[in-house]
User: Fold this.
Amino acid sequence: MRYLGLAAAPLALLAAFAPSSVAAREEAATTVEIEAGQPGPKIDRHIFGQFAEHLGTGIYGGIWVGPDSKIPNVRGIRSDVVAALKAIKVPDVRWPGGCFADEYHWKNGVGPHRRSTVNANWGGSIEPDTFGTEEFMDFIHQIGSDAYVSVNVGSGTLEEASDWMAYMTADQRSSAGADRAANGHAEPYAVKYVGLGNESWGCGGNMRPQYYIDLMKRYARFTRNYNPAQQGDTNPAAMQRIAVGPTDDDMSYTEAVMEAWSKRDWSWSIEGLSLHSYTVPHWPPSLPSVGFGEDDYASILQATLKMDQRIARNSAIMDKYDPDKKVALVVDEWGVWLAENPGSPKGFLQQQNSMRDAIVAALNFNIFARHADRVRMANIAQMINVLQSLILTDGPKLVLTPTYYIHQMYLPFQDATFIPVKFDAGEYRHGDIALPKIDAVAVKATDGKLYLSLVNLDPANGATVRVTLPQGRFGKASGQVLTAANVNSINTFEQPNTVAPRPIAGKVAGGVMTIELPAKSVAMVALER
Ligand code: AHR
Assistant:
């Protein structure tokens, strides 16, 4: 396996010392044209949603340390994590799973007497149920997020799911609401999203599409939300029901669920269809998260770019049954799935997070933005200490990953308007793998400014990008860029700032902005008058 730092050196030197290098770079400049006159759809801020499952140390240790912990916390929820998540305005958190959700019995996790269980999906660890409904709702309240609760369709009952909804959302005149008040929360909770099962074609019960649909219709009807603030179909706060949908390239659930939806009557509906699509060149995941070379880098980027086709193919089926795009495609599990860290507990899905993974995150956000008319929510897997995490913790220690910084840099995309761009992406080639060299997406943000996301996938060569600015006077182009010495550079507890954003600026002259993108980089640039 080639090590990138060494492999890249001769190319970089050649570029630096060749007499014609400046001319060569001039020729190779990528031209981006912003078509500001044809604004596209709104990019829903919920594409920056998160997923937090009872898995490994995602919840226990990552979020919950308990009120008696020496780690600073508010009611048991660690304060450093809350501060980091508040800073990136997490729009929603999907909980309690994942596969875990289809074996979760909510009554074990409310009130003063919790019942522990075995987390059979994830390493057979003991699930203490200390972090239950109250603690989850407190957590999302502390970080300012919406709740996305997945109910147990696989091994639970409809009565159990409907009782849980009543417990969370009914007012105190009902016994369910009174029980919640007795457990410390008088007001009904807001449940903005409910997931009707998880991967029912797999860990959620291995159901044929038709079997799932028959079940799902009943859950869609009877998982009622009683919160007075969420009533009414046109109420923007109304709860949205998300049915299980496709995985990767198997679209049988998409076809069957959408066909059923198109024939629905007044008694049930759904507002979202879930898509799970991880970045894994080959199952089971075996590529290391540290110390990898260009072979792995290129094959992971190739794998992640398949997201675009997957969304397009699912959207085409959805368009057939739902041309008005009423049902959202909800990519509620995505991210890089790599080999578990050597020596970590089996089944805890612990992996490091590198500059390469930051590029993966940026490419996916750009793909979601291009499909903003249909993709109105996405949840990276997962928030803390599991798979493509934003945050890693170990006892009191915490480090922000390169993927965290992409979320921070993409804040202007939240609820922004998509602005089409035209550009020739060029090519980055490694062996048989040919990928676009440059990716670009423009948005008009809610602060009124135009922002441009630029990604340079080439691990060894920088790129000059010339942006033809829309009419109007733009005098300033500045923002942040994330890059690192190597694509496998990581942040550790000891060296937390190896991969961190730094300022970048473009030159604006004669209606053109010119910017130099470093190799293997993601830039977010604000264009200002
Ligand atoms: O994110 C880890 C697991 O991946 C989830 O529990 C499951 O839904 C998916 O297969």
In short: The mean pLDDT is 94. The first strand starts at residue 30 and ends at 34. Residues 53, 97-99, 198-199, 203, 333, 381-382, 387 surround alpha-L-arabinofuranose (CB under 6 Å). DSSP finds twelve helices and 26 strands in the chain.
